[in-house]
Automatic annotation (TrEMBL):
GO terms for biological process: methylation. This is Class I SAM-dependent methyltransferase. InterPro entries: Methyltransf_25 (IPR041698), Methyltransf_Superfamily (IPR050508), SAM-dependent_MTases_sf (IPR029063). Residues 54-144 form the Methyltransferase domain.
C-alpha cells in the first residue's frame, strides 16, 4: 500500500533541514518557563503513577527526550525522519532513538508510562488525528499520561522555506477545544490545558494539553 503523502512530505522536509534545525534549537532553546513547567508536571505525574518508559514521539534531534531524562524519566525517541534520528543518535548516544510514525507505532499495547508529542502532531491532517489519538491510547499503560504541545488556530499553512532550505510541508494550527475533544473520544481524560501568548519568533498562541489514560478498576 502506498504511503500517505503527508508522511512522505514530512519525512522529506525534516530530512532536508535536520542538521540546521538542530543547530538553530541549540542556539535558541525555544521552551519558555511555562513550557518547562508543563514538562516538569508531566514527569512528576508519570513517576507518581509508577513510572515506566516515556516515548517522545516526533522527537526530532532529541532535545526533549534528553530533557525528559534529566527530569528522572526513562525516555526514548521516535521520529519519522531518518536524518533527524541520525542527529539525535550522534548528539545523545546513550539514549534510544528509532524511526517510526505515530500513526502506526511499533510499540506493544500498554507498554509506555507516558507519551510526549511536542509540536509533532502539527503536520498530521486534522481528519487523521483520531487515528493518532487511538494509537496513543493503545500504547499507554493504564494510568499513563500524554503531553501535547501545538500552535493555536484553525488553519493549514504551507511551508515553503525553513532553516535555510526550500521545503514543501503543511503545518496545522489547532484548536485546544478540538484536541481535548479528540483526546476524550480516544478514551483519555484531559487533566490540564495551558494557553500562553506568543514569545520570540512565535506568531500565535501556543497550547499544551495534559491527559491521562484511566487506570484499571
Amino acid at each position: 500500500m502506498a504511503e500517505a503523502s503527508y508522511l512522505s512530505a514530512t519525512r522529506a522536509a525534516y530530512d532536508t533541514v535536520a542538521v540546521d534545525y538542530a543547530k538553530r534549537l541549540r542556539a535558541e532553546p525555544p521552551e519558555t518557563p511555562l513550557d518547562l513547567a508543563m514538562l516538569a508536571a508531566f514527569a512528576k505525574l508519570v513517576q507518581s503513577a509508577g513510572g515506566g518508559p516515556v516515548a517522545d514521539l516526533g522527537c526530532g534531534p532529541g532535545r526533549i527526550t534528553a530533557h525528559l531524562r534529566s527530569l528522572g524519566l526513562t525516555a526514548f525517541g521516535i521520529d519519522l525522519s531518518p536524518a533527524m534520528v541520525a542527529v539525535a543518535r550522534r548528539t545523545y548516544p546513550d539514549l534510544r532513538f528509532n524511526e517510526g510514525s505515530m500513526a502506526a507505532l511499533d510499540l506493544a499495547d500498554a507498554s509506555v508510562g507516558g507519551i510526549v508529542a511536542w509540536y509533532s502532531i502539527i503536520h498530521i491532517p486534522p481528519e487523521l488525528l483520531p487515528v493518532v489519538f487511538t494509537e496513543f491510547h493503545r500504547v499507554l499503560a493504564p494510568g499513563g499520561h500524554l503531553l501535547l504541545a501545538f500552535q493555536v488556530g484553525n488553519e493549514r499553512r504551507h511551508v515553503e522555506h525553513g532553516y535555510g532550505h526550500s521545503l514543501s510541508l503543511d503545518a496545522y494550527r489547532l484548536s485546544p477545544d478540538h484536541i481535548a475533544e479528540l483526546s476524550s473520544e480516544a478514551g483519555l481524560v484531559v487533566q490540564a490545558r495551558l494557553l500562553r501568548e506568543p514569545e520570540g519568533r512565535e506568531k500565535v498562541q501556543q497550547a499544551c494539553l495534559l491527559a491521562r489514560k484511566p487506570g484499571m478498576s
